[in-house]
């Protein structure tokens, strides 16, 4: 590019941009124009240098004042494009970064956690030793009957768990010594030279798997892994009130951690069977109770089953199908969530399908009496009006 563009235009900012806005703009442009992402563009390196130079000037208070007053002539020779190029291990010549943190830029481009750039500091930070990692959690599902979920129960079940090897106490071998590959750090660093300078990336040591040490004799029981899989029988107490989708945690029964990290947890997710008569909604219980026509007309005393035994309920005379009665406190006693529901009785009146001659006579006699309700009389009046 023969003629230099305005530095503010290069970064896409206004002349009144703050220091934070300048840094943010440079970060965005550096990611966007990095040469390694545009290998087919012969001008990629030149564009990237232009962004560097613009940031180098505008991020420096004195240089920015000179540029604002005299333009490019006021900062001639400053930055990468003023005769300076990309350095080797020393990084950019003439460009000190003005205190800018390049870690997030180069990590996002190269994925190099812990990578270093030229003479700058390690952006992601170096690992000072083996990383202690907690084990992952395990999720399993368990079926419960309706009664088991309502009242709580004790469940015994088998599960495959990974545990520390008893023979080597989880070490994987005997006669511990420092890993000769990583020298006890648990990580190895590789260096790569690019047009941007020298990059280094840090990865887990492949020989000690991050532990920082190896063993002269490998354990034959776990084949050096320090862990073995076993099928174990566990017993858990399930609190009353569990419902489908609820989970219970069993601490420390998940997958083992690494380098001394604690085990993960086991989570049990419950699936509760439906009941033949009771219907559960949250902690409330619904029960449909059948009534004969005479029970509905005359009213009666009805024995109602609940979760906790039968109760006597008075059915009012003239009860209709769909009428609902609440029995307070007879829902789910949920100790899992510390609350108690109610029970709702839904009445359903069943009409006889066959009647004897005497029964028909009684019905005819009832029909001749004034048993019409206000609703029936209003509806019959409406029907006559529409004739």
Descriptive notes:
With 387 residues, the protein is of the alpha+beta class. Among the domains are: 7-100, DnaJ domain (Helix Hairpins); 279-376, HSP40/DNAj peptide-binding domain, CATH 2.60.260.20. It has helices spanning 7-11, 19-33, 44-58, 61-70, 103-110, 146-151, 293-298, 357-367, 374-385, and strands spanning 116-117, 138-144, 153-164, 173-178, 187-194, 197-204, 213-218, 227-238, 247-250, 266-272, 279-281, 284-292, 300-306, 309-315, 324-327, 333-334, 339-340, 343-350. The strands form seven sheets. It has a four-stranded mixed beta sheet. Strands 1-6-5 form a three-stranded antiparallel beta sheet, with no helix packed on it. A three-stranded mixed beta sheet has the order 2-10-9. Strand 13 (300-306) and strand 14 (309-315) form a beta hairpin. The chain is elongated, with a radius of gyration of 40 Å. The termini are far apart. Mean pLDDT is 80; it is low at 80-99 and 107-128.
Strand content: 25-35%
Task: Please trace the helix and strand order, writing H or E for each element.
Answer: HHHHHEEHEEEEEEEEEEHEEEEEEHH
Q: Total number of helical segments?
A: 9
Main beta sheet strand tally, sense and closure: 4 strands, mixed
Q: Approximately how much helix is present in the residues?
A: 10-25%
| Mean of pLDDT | 80
CATH-defined architecture of one domain: Sandwich
Which structural class fits the helix and strand makeup? alpha+beta
Poorly predicted segments: 80-99, 107-128
Q: Please give the radius of gyration in angstroms.
A: 40 Å
Our measurement of the CA-to-CA distance between the termini, rounded to an integer number of angstroms, reads 94 Å
Got a strand count? 18
CATH class of one domain: Mainly Beta
Query: For this structure, what is the CATH homologous superfamily of one domain?
Result: Urease metallochaperone UreE, N-terminal domain
**CATH fold-type name of one domain:** HSP40/DNAj peptide-binding domain
What gross morphology would you assign?
elongated
Give, in spatial order, the strands making up the sheet with the most strands: 11-12-18-15
């Amino acid at each position: 590019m023969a003629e230099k563009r305005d530095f503010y235009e290069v970064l896409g900012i206004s002349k009144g941009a703050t220091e934070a806005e300048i840094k943010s703009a440079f970060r965005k442009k550096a990611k966007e124009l990095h040469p390694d992402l545009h290998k087919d563009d012969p001008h990629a390196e030149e564009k990237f240098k232009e962004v560097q130079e613009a940031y180098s000037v505008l991020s420096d208070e004195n240089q920015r004042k000179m540029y604002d007053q005299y333009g490019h002539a006021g900062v001639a020779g400053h930055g990468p494009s003023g005769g300076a190029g990309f350095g080797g291990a020393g990084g950019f010549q003439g460009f000190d970064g003005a205190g800018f943190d390049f870690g997030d830029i180069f990590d996002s481009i190269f994925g190099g956690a812990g990578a270093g750039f030229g003479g700058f500091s390690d952006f992601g930070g170096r690992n000072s030793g083996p990383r202690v990692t907690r084990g992952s959690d395990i999720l399993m599902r368990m079926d419960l009957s309706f009664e088991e979920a309502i009242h709580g129960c004790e469940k015994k079940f088998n599960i495959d768990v990974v545990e520390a090897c008893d023979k080597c106490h989880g070490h994987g071998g005997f006669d511990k010594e420092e890993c000769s590959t990583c020298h006890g750090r648990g990580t190895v660093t590789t260096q790569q030279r690019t047009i941007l300078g020298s990059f280094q990336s840090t990865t887990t040591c492949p020989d000690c798997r991050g532990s920082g040490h190896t063993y002269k004799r490998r354990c034959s029981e776990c084949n050096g892994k320090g862990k073995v899989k076993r099928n174990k029988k566990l017993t858990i107490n399930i609190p009353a009130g569990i419902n489908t989708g609820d989970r219970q945690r069993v601490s420390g029964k998940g997958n083992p951690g690494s380098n001394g990290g604690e085990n993960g947890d086991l989570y049990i997710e419950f699936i509760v069977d439906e009941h033949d008569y009771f219907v559960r909604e949250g902690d409330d219980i619904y029960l449909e109770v059948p009534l004969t026509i005479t029970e509905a007309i005359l009213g009666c005393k009805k024995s109602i089953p609940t979760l906790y035994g039968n109760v006597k309920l008075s059915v009012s005379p003239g009860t209709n199908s769909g009428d609902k009665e609440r029995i307070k406190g007879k829902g789910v006693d949920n100790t899992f969530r510390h609350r108690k529901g109610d029970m709702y009785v839904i009445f359903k009146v069943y009409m006889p399908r066959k009647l004897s001659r005497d029964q028909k006579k009684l019905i005819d006699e009832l029909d001749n009496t004034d048993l019409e309700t206000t609703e029936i009389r209003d509806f019959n009046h409406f029907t006559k009006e529409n004739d």
